[in-house]
Amino acid sequence: MHKKLFIPGPTEVRQDILDAQAKPMIGHRSKDFAAINDGVINKIKKALNTKNYTYVFTSSGTGVMEGAIRNCVKKDILHAVNGAFSDRWFKISKACGKSADAITVPWGKAIKPEMIEEKLKTKKYEAIALAQNETSTGVRAPVEQIAEVMKKYPDVIWLVDMVSSLMGDIVDVDKLGIDVCITSSQKCFALPPGLAVCTVSQKALDKTRTVTDRGYYFDFDAMQKRYEKDKQTPTTPAISLFNALNLQMDKILAEGMENRYKRHIAMAEYVRAWAKKHFAMFSEEGYHSVTVSCIDNTRKITVADLNSELGKRGFQISNGYGDLKEKTFRIAHMGDLTLDEIKEVLKNIDEILKL
Ligand SMILES: *Cc1c(COP(=O)(O)O)cnc(C)c1O
């Protein structure tokens, strides 16, 4: 039996989107593929209301997290670390040989704008990287307030991981001045894994062009030049996934981003109310994620047992991440899930736990 996914990626993929991947193969140097790539890029830009360059890479999100570091940083970068994924990005910078500093707060807490300003005052960083939606703890970063700080430091490039929130939560990339915004197909896009989408500002692209050891596969300049030449990608893209993305973008635009956001908020609020009644939220009050709720296991249930019981009923939720395993559990409300589906999974948890 298929278990409906309420995990923070991969998310549940609708049948028509799965079917779109079964179209006959075409050559990636064809006009047909160029049209698909160009169509997809323009639809994403429309949905995000951004004028920034937009690229679709055949990789998972982590690939572009590494790519962004290599493209935009020669030496000094500051990371905001408040969970597993923001920590991964910090590790990536170090693995790429950068001189990386971190602002660290306990898991479950949000990084506040004044913490960032404090650091930016003390040292000239080329870039700062943070997770807008820290999936391991369900914390949403206050990017709207952080943007006010960033405006005072126009030379600093702002890299944002929106892997588990873009296309669910709404962030005005252009208005906030986010230079590189990254996401993966298997989260709020509700697609299979395998594609990563990013927006790149003129400022970031200009910087890229001055970085000599920026690597090859994720070179933003190469992506841009190839797109300008013939709307294609430098290397072979995952064409089947592009077909799914193309159809999904039509569906996302038909729903409308505002409606999509409202649906995500409605699901988030329902889960939070349920969590506060029976458990507690793990994420700091005022900074709860719109797309995934991390719940403090105050009743000391065995999360693994709950999940196997849920599995018999055709549902899957997520245990806590890493050290938070069994101490927390996560219910994702992202992608194409509906409030009714959220109500259904919570009703089943109520029955299993006799709440
Ligand atoms: C899932 C996730 C990632 C990693 O993305 P992959 O597509 O698995 O490489 C990075 N950051 C956040 C916040 C995530 O949720």
Please describe what this structure looks like.
By secondary structure, this protein is α/β, with parallel strands linked by helices. It has two domains: 104 residues, Aspartate Aminotransferase, domain 1, CATH 3.90.1150; 239 residues, Aspartate Aminotransferase, domain 2, CATH 3.40.640.10. The protein has 13 helices and 15 strands. It has a seven-stranded mixed beta sheet, with helices on both faces. A four-stranded antiparallel beta sheet has the order 11-12-15-14, with helices on one face. It has a two-stranded parallel ribbon with strand order 1-13. The longest helix is centred in the C-terminal third of the chain and has 22 residues. It is globular. The model has no long low-confidence stretch (mean pLDDT 98).
Helix content: 40-55%
Strand order of the largest sheet: 2-10-9-8-5-3-4
Number of alpha- plus pi-helical segments: 13
Q: What portion of residues belong to β-strands? A: 15-25%
Largest sheet: 7 strands, mixed
The tally of structural domains comes to: 2
Shape descriptor reads globular
Q: Spell the H/E element sequence.
A: EHHEHEHEHEEEHEHEEHHHHEEHEEEH
CATH topology group of the largest domain: Aspartate Aminotransferase, domain 2
Structural class: alpha/beta
Query: Looking at the chains present, what oligomeric state does this protein adopt?
Result: single chain
- CATH classification, class level of the largest domain: Alpha Beta
Number of strands: 15
CATH architecture of the largest domain: 3-Layer(aba) Sandwich
The distinct ligands, each listed once, are:
pyridoxal-5'-phosphate
CA distance, first residue to last residue: 26 Å
